[in-house]
Amino acid sequence: MRITTRCLLHPNLVVFHKQDLLRSIVLNATSTKSVEDTSSITENLSTDTIGMSSPKRFVNNSLKRKKSLTAPQWVKLNVEYNSSYGTPLPKEMTKANEFFNKAKVEFEWGVTSFDSILSEIVRKKLKVRDDGNQISKNGTKKFVGKTNIPFKLINGLPEITFLGRSNAGKSSMLNNLLTQLGCRKLTDEARMSSRPGFTKTLNCFNIGNKFRLIDTPGYGFGSKFDQGSLTMKYIENREELVRCFVLIPANQGFTNLDLQILNYLKGIGKPFEVVFTKMDKVKDINILKRQIEDSGIIDYATLPKLLFTNSMTSKNCPKRYGITELRHTIMQSCNMLVN
Ligand SMILES: Nc1nc2c(ncn2[C@@H]2O[C@H](COP(=O)(O)OP(=O)(O)OP(=O)(O)O)[C@@H](O)[C@H]2O)c(=O)[nH]1
Ligand SMILES: [Mg+2]
Predict the structure, then answer these.
(1) Which of 43, 134, 138, 274 is the least crowded, having the fewest Cβ atoms under 10 Å away?
(2) pLDDT given for residue 278 in this prediction
(3) Whether 70 contacts 319, CB under 8 Å
């Protein structure tokens, strides 16, 4: 496995990906189970580990109900395309679900320009001393005499961002992550809409004071140039950003713009993964598989993970699948699964 890549903007700079290091560690640490084995682990975890469906409830259900809870075929793609990572450890999956199910979520800021992110203002105004003398140990206290910005907003928590074209399902995915696994109705932390171009600002959510999830305005149809440059500036300059998740609506496949964004991230050496949304709308997974092959992403030296999800449920897709895998990957990116 190659663990370095050349930065396209700076060909002399070899970028060493933390992501790749992690991957090689996971590879070495985990056993190589078959696709069938791993998908059953994932499925069991999705229902059992969070205690949303007791075994008794299943015994009492009719055969018809049992049938309707059968996972769709595409759920296995989560294992099929990520075999180079080995099987995620069940205890890690449990930990990820427990964290997201319980985490306190707080909306912290929404901005239309990068320079109005509070911590960026502080960064500009203050040269924070390495010994931390100007920072109160009490998270609620403020910078004395310099700014009124609470310390908790500049505490440098790792940040995760969702990128994707307008209407790809970014805001829905954020809500999906933050909704208890057994619930069908999503929480409404981030506002969602069927109207493309709905999210117009960069929105930050603090998750359990461990990391931040950043929802972005979509690119392409319905979006504005300013929103695109805001997102670009954030990606290129934000020190706290540890991982980008590029969302692709699986029922539509890749657009040229999606491929440009993926190439751009690869070029500037930003670690990223690819998340397919709206899998419940995919009629033929072979078409999607061909599109993935044609896109060339499986040949990327950075080995992005490919995750397959649905945020909305339906008769054929009675649960929200793939979300445990996404939660696990996010926590891994924030180094929260060590030990
Ligand atoms: N069927 C289905 N619909 C989805 C899914 N995810 C999102 N949607 C729908 O897609 C539409 C767009 O969802 P949003 O989450 O607002 O999309 P967005 O990427 O945030 O869009 P912008 O803010 O405009 O960039 C909404 O009508 C959602 O209900 C999914 O997994 N399945
Ligand atoms: Mg949105």
Answers:
(1) 138
(2) 97
(3) no
Which residues on neighbouring strands pair with residue 163, listed in sequence order? 246
**Nearest protein CA to atom 23 of ligand 1, as residue:** 199
Query: 287 CA to middle of ligand 1, Å?
Result: 21
335 CB less than 6 Å from ligand 1? no
Which of ligand 1's atoms lies nearest the C-alpha of 218?
Answer: 25
Tens-digit pLDDT profile for residues 160-180:
999 999 999 999 999 999 999
Which residue type is seen at 251? N
pLDDT digits (tens, 9 = 90+) for 223-263: 777 777 889 999 999 999 999 999 999 999 999 999 999 99
Tokens encoding 272? 């990223």
Q: Does the model's ipTM exceed the 0.85 cut? A: yes
pLDDT in the model for residue 126: 66
Picking from 95, 66, 78, the residue whose alpha carbon sits closest to that of residue 39 is 78
Q: What is the radius of gyration, based on Cα positions, of the chain?
A: 20
pLDDT of residue 127: 53
Residue 249 CB–ligand 1 contact under 6 Å: no
Is there an atom of ligand 1 within 6 Å of 227 CB? no
